[in-house]
């Protein structure tokens, strides 16, 4: 089968790799769609994503969907041809008692398309992928596999919104309207936020945020500043330089949920308002099982299709990565068509 494999910085290839065979408790999924994420871009551009450094070739991709193609021994209740998305996390070992229920914080997790552990964990940008049956999330009638590929990043957004508590009736600011920020806009509105303001330096990103439900947008590159005294803020840019303005925009006693990945090395940031405004600053990392909530939200009619701006076939993965990485391309979520026989 074909797979999108990163071998090092600026070195991504379409490799022929063996077709997988399902082991006990596993199924093989015929992959149909994959969404390109920031970590995929990091491995391709830098050979690393955060502290995870590429040491061997790695199949990219953790935002994926497809249909069950084969069922391994010991698997029951899974039908051939069933449309599914996949929870990409596979924790290893016990979870500390103090983290009960917070499996996203497990100290050792194998995640699709991650170089964090040795050997690395291949992702799903391939024609087939063997996966544990309990990682499958069935897609209900009315939710396509194309939409199913968005369930993983929507799960990230829902987890971030839920970290803030009940957002119904509240005013919300989302700083950074890339794919995750735009999905936070959609998730906050879905959870009942009264007003959502999206801010970004890129006009195309703000137009996507508007289509996903933003009531107001602030184009920072054109001189528009952040609003003042917003009760609840989601920082989704991951830019250290944005932290000062974001804290200043947060109302006294308000809450900031940090979703954008901050650098792993020292970086200047103005944090004084964190203290003087008594701001609650929360981190948000991946998700627990909000991918299941995401599927339910899609079934309930949450429309995230405006996020998808480009689609490419698997053999054009290098071009797809370049478009996703180029802020001038106007790209939101870039999808890869992964299936062999053209089912969409």
Automatic annotation (TrEMBL):
InterPro entries: ADH-like_C (IPR013149), ADH-like_N (IPR013154), ADH_Zn_CS (IPR002328), GroES-like_sf (IPR011032), NAD(P)-bd_dom_sf (IPR036291)
Organism the protein comes from: Saccharopolyspora rosea
Family: Belongs to the zinc-containing alcohol dehydrogenase family.
Record keyword Transmembrane helix present: no
Keywords associated with the record: Metal-binding, Oxidoreductase, Zinc
Name the record gives this protein: L-idonate 5-dehydrogenase
Domain (Alcohol dehydrogenase-like C-terminal): residue spans on this chain: 179-295
Cofactor(s) listed: Zn(2+)
Domain Alcohol dehydrogenase-like N-terminal: 23-141
Entry keyword Secreted: no
Taxonomy, superkingdom: Bacteria
Listed SUPFAM superfamilies: GroES-like, NAD(P)-binding Rossmann-fold domains
Pfam family, one: ADH_N
